[in-house]
């Protein structure tokens, strides 16, 4: 505010104008006075001179004070602060003047005490006007900033209603104006996806009732039918004393992000299905190769061994010494037969197809113990043993157990391992633990650890969950949880 204030006095009574001049002069506060003895002249001076404020009498020869205010705010000098001078019995006039834009008023008492208050009242009115202007400027800057953002911003009341005080023009993203949105509090809920509506409204209401932070993703249907995904985030705003005021939030359009996530999930599912299909092809091929080796190569080796045995028996019957090479050939043929059996078992153990996965797991634990010296205990709970899993899940469980025990033998340095199978509440659980050196965290996070990655993918194809935990020196535990529900056969 400048040190010299320009005050326009609009007063038709010359004596009253003189009294006002004396009051301002006595205040010695640097007032420059402009005077008008009619409403029209006052409006012209207000328009041309742009005073800091106007001191307005209600009774003018050509206009009433209320008419003056109407013209002033319409086309003369809108926004100029006005102090109204009224009679002692004019409370209604003062109220109407304030409604039309007067900033303050003084009652003209017969003893002229109002003149002593006049300079101070003018200063107070202008200070209030400056504060109001500053507030409006800050609000305008804030509104401009908010409305330039891509997000929809809003202010919501606290409490059960959660009514909105404000919503930014970006609500046009959904095809609605701020006025339409604020006029219909139920519109927000009606636009929600029916499958999400109850849970979403409950979360919104709880946040606005408790003042708790909100972070929520949900889908709305725009006026034109488009599905729009929004991320709704809100925080509680408090005053300087820490008292809660309202919730301030933003809604961000994340439709493209959600579409990308859906496309990624679809791609992952397609890759997972492809991987499972490839695994099935591989298992079928292993089974076919194992069968051919058994039927053809195994048969040939068995025939060769039989011929050699017959030759040795004939030589013995003729009391002739057997050819030493024949005995050696018989031993080599047996070694070849044993190798073929081992290859067939590695490709596809026949016990898995003939006796089922539980017998196959027990058999494989015995094989591991016999071949490696690792003490391997297999326990299948009675509830699990009663289950008859389909071929796909049976193969998955066996291959994961095979991979896990192979890793124990190769990397754990363990003396003991335990394989436990349980079933409860529709969930089958396979747990394999050892007392070895413990798997390192780096290996668990290594995306190039194809054995671990393969176990995870096999498990996920059947909606299972696989966890591998380990601590240095305290061994490693693999836990597979497989929900069965109605997916297994009894």
TrEMBL record:
The entry's keywords? Kinase, Phosphoprotein, Transferase, Two-component regulatory system
Q: Which GO terms describe its molecular function?
A: phosphorelay sensor kinase activity; protein dimerization activity
Q: Which PROSITE patterns match?
A: HIS_KIN, PAC, RESPONSE_REGULATORY
Q: Which organism is it from?
A: Duganella violaceipulchra
Q: Does the keyword Nucleotide-binding apply?
A: no
Enzyme class, first EC level, given as a word: transferase
NCBIfam families (alphabetical): sensory_box
- What is the name of the protein in this document? Response regulator
């Amino acid at each position: 505010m400048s040190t010299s204030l320009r005050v326009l006095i609009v007063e038709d009574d010359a004596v009253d104008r003189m009294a006002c001049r004396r009051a301002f002069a006595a205040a010695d506060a640097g007032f420059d006075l402009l005077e008008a003895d009619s409403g029209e002249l006052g409006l012209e001076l207000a328009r041309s001179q742009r005073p800091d404020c106007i001191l307005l009498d209600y009774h003018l020869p050509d206009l009433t004070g209320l008419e003056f205010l109407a013209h002033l705010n319409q086309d003369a000098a809108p926004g100029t602060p006005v102090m109204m001078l009224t009679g002692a019995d004019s409370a209604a006039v003062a109220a109407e003047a304030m409604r039309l834009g007067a900033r303050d008023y003084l009652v003209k008492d017969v003893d002229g005490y109002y003149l002593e208050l006049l300079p101070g009242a003018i200063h107070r009115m202008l200070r209030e006007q400056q504060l109001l202007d500053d507030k409006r400027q800050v609000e305008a800057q804030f509104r401009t900033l908010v409305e330039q953002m891509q997000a929809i911003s809003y202010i919501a009341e606290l409490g059960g209603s959660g009514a909105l005080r404000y919503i930014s023009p970006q609500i046009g993203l959904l095809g609605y104006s701020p006025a339409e949105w604020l006029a219909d509090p139920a519109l927000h809920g009606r636009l929600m996806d029916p499958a999400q509506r109850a849970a979403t409204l409950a979360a919104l209401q709880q946040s606005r009732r408790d003042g708790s932070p909100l972070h929520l993703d949900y889908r709305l249907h725009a006026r034109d039918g488009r599905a729009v995904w929004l991320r709704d985030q809100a925080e509680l705003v408090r005053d300087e004393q820490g008292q809660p005021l309202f919730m301030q939030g933003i809604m961000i359009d994340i439709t493209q992000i959600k579409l990308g996530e859906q496309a990624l999930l679809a791609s992952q599912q397609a890759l997972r299905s492809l991987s499972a299909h490839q695994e099935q092809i591989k298992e079928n091929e292993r089974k076919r190769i194992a069968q051919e080796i058994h039927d053809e190569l195994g048969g040939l080796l068995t025939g060769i061994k039989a011929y050699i045995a017959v030759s040795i028996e004939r030589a013995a019957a003729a009391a002739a010494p057997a050819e030493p090479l024949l005995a050696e050939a018989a031993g080599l043929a047996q070694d070849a037969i044993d190798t073929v059996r081992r290859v067939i078992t590695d490709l596809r153990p026949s016990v898995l197809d003939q006796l089922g996965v539980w017998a196959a797991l027990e058999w494989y634990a015995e094989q591991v113990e016999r071949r490696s010296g690792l003490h391997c205990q297999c326990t299948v709970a009675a509830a699990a043993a009663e289950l008859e899993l389909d071929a796909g899940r049976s193969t998955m469980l066996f291959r994961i157990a095979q991979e896990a025990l192979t890793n124990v033998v190769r990397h754990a340095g363990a003396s003991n391992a335990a394989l436990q199978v349980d079933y409860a509440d529709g969930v089958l659980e396979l747990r394999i633990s050892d007392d070895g050196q413990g798997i390192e965290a780096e290996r668990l996070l290594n995306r190039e650890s194809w054995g671990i990655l393969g176990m995870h993918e096999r498990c996920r194809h059947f909606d299972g969950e696989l966890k591998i935990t380990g601590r240095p020196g305290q061994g490693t535990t693999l836990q597979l949880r497989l929900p069965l529900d109605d997916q297994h056969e009894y």
